[in-house]
Amino acid sequence: SVLSKQLLRSGTSIGANIAEGKYAQSKDDFINKNSVALKEASETLYWLELLIEAKLLDDIDAVNSIKADCEELIRILVSSIKTAKGK
Question: Which of 58, 72, 75, 78 suits 40 as a labelling partner, its CA being 20 to 30 A distant?
Fold first, then answer.
């Protein structure tokens, strides 16, 4: 479905941007890469919630676990960005 393709795209983009941030050329580049990862994580959470509401997923326990992981990743990224900004 379109929703699952969007979920796959945003979900895989999180890791790709974090990986890019590991070798950032500057602090601003690191912040930018992690900010993009944060946006993708937020979008992934949105798609997961839509899939749950539409009852398009069978294993709700697994989905809730993925959702919790995504929420934790968002908290980590927010903290990392704040630390890099010196706030």
Answer: 58
CB-neighbour burial class of residue 27 (10 A; exposed 0-12, middle 13-18, buried 19+):
exposed
DSSP codes, 37-75 = HHHHHHHHHHHHHHHHHTT--S-HHHHHHHHHHHHHHHH
Cα separation, 47 vs 62, whole angstroms: 15
Q: To the nearest whole percent, how much of the chain has pLDDT over 70?
A: 100
pTM of the model: 0.90
Q: Which residues contact 41 (CB under 8 A, 6 or more apart)?
A: 10, 14, 70, 73, 74, 77
66 CB contacts (<8 Å, ≥6 apart)? Answer: 48
